[in-house]
Amino acid sequence: MSDRFHVTYLLTLAPGEDAEERIRALQLEQSAELPDPVVHSLGMQYVTGSVAAATSVETPLDGSRNGSQQLRATIAWPKNNHGNEITQLLNVLFGNISMKRGIAITDIRWEDVAGDETAGGGRNAGGGRNASGGRYAGGGRNASGERYVGGERYVGGGRGRNRLLAGPAYGIQQIRKKWNIHGRALACTALKPMGYSSRKLADLAFRFALGGVDIIKDDHGLADQPTAPFTERVEMCVEAVDRAAQKTGSRSRYFPNITTDPHRVTERFEQAAEMGADGVLLCPMLVGPALMHHLARLNTGLPIMAHPAFSGSYVAQGIDSGRSETSQAYPAVEGVTEQKVPDNAARAGAPSTHTAPHGFEPGLFYGGLMRALGADFTIYPNIGGRFSFTSEVCDAINSHARNPALPFAPCFPAPGGGMQRDRMAFWLKNYGADTTFLMGGSLFEDPAGIEAASRAFMETLSA
Question: Cα(first)–Cα(last) distance of the chain, in Å?
Answer without folding.
Answer: 47
